[in-house]
Amino acid sequence: MMDLRRLSCFLLVSEELHFGRAAARLHMAQPPLTRQISALESELGFRLFDRSTRNVKLTAEGRQFLPYARSVLEQVDLTTAISAKLAAGAAGHLALGHASSIALSEVFSHSIQAFCSANPDVQLTAEEGASSTLLPQLVEGRLDIAMSRLPPPDDDARVQVLSLGSEPLVAAVASANPLARRQQVSLAELSAYPLITFPSDYGSGLYEILDPLYRRHGVRPRLGPAGRQITSIIALVAAGRGVAVVPHCTRNLGRHDVTYLPLAEPEACAPLLVLTRRHDRSPLVQAFLEMIGQTPHAGLYG
Question: Which CATH code is given to the segment(s) 92-302?
Fold first, then answer.
């Protein structure tokens, strides 16, 4: 393997075309520099410089070899810089999984914007999925971080949870629906219309929240069509196919044909959770947690 120190010596001599000045820049005496160049020439099998008592100039072979030597040293500098960024959590790849509705939250967009701005060398991949599918992907290492509405089982020691608090649930109704003129609406009033939500077999955290919420208030919803994405659910609401109960951030879809109403039940809310592997000490994961942990009311538990 070629000695990088010798390449550095060659590069400086080629710039100075003077062994004394090159040696001064390297903070070494001239004889050791001369020996480094001679050793490199022996390794290469050709002379790099024509030397006389008055001047030094590159040989034809030296001129052709120079750009390759410079490229090698530039790559070494780049590798050193990247390795330092990797160690500091400022470079690499981060796989982030998220539930459908969470992508609409300001916490999600602001955190990613801040993280990517602070870490331009990080390639972040955002993958949407049902909350129930995010946990196994995280544990298996296919995701580095999961943003979910569904907490892991209490006895799952593999996962650490960062709670970013909760957001209220709201009713989504078509703007042509008479309910749209109300200031708020109750679950009982909503039950007069088909409830549009995620399929029961999809594994949505929102579905898992709604079922006990309705039961607690003695309301049995009349299930309507289902959608596997929050945008599909709202599109069905706009089409007059029923009503939906969704996180407050769904308002950010900005549809004029859908009206969002506060619920009369004050405890109706959806958590926003950040899941990571408990013993994951990846600098990238830690850097993301530090960034998103600046969100008000965030706190570790579990």
Answer: 3.40.190.290
In this prediction, residues 202-217 reach a mean pLDDT of: 90
Fill in the amino acid letter for 183.
Q
Count CB neighbours of 207 within 10 A: 20
Tell me the whole-structure pTM to 2 decimals: 0.69
Nearest to 195 by CA among 212, 205, 207: 207
Give counts: helices (H), strands (E), the chain.
10, 12
- For the record, the structure tokens of 235 come out as 């599109």
pLDDT grade for 301, boundaries at 50, 70 and 90: very low
Helix (H, G, I), strand (E, B) or coil at 262: strand
Helix H segments across the chain? 4-16, 19-25, 30-44, 60-87, 106-118, 131-139, 187-190, 205-216, 230-238, 283-292
- The CATH-assigned architecture of domain 4-87 is Orthogonal Bundle (1.10)
In order of 250, 282, 288, 291, the CA distances from 237 in angstroms are 12, 42, 35, 35
Buried b (16+ CB within 10 A) or exposed e, 260-269: bbbbbbeebb
Q: Residue ranges of the domains in the chain?
A: 4-87, 92-302
What does the alpha-carbon distance between residue 185 and residue 224 come to, in Å, rounded to a whole number? 19
Q: Between residues 203 and 190, which one has the greater pLDDT?
A: 190
What is the largest distance, in Å, between two alpha-carbon atoms of the chain? 101
- What are the structure tokens assigned to 181, written together? 């003129």
Question: Measured between alpha carbons, how far is 145 from 253 in angstroms, rounded to an integer?
Answer: 25
Residues in a beta bridge with 163 = 273, 299
pLDDT tens digits for range 169-197: 999 999 999 999 999 999 999 999 999 99
pLDDT, one tens digit per residue, over 52-76 is: 877 899 999 999 999 999 998 888 8
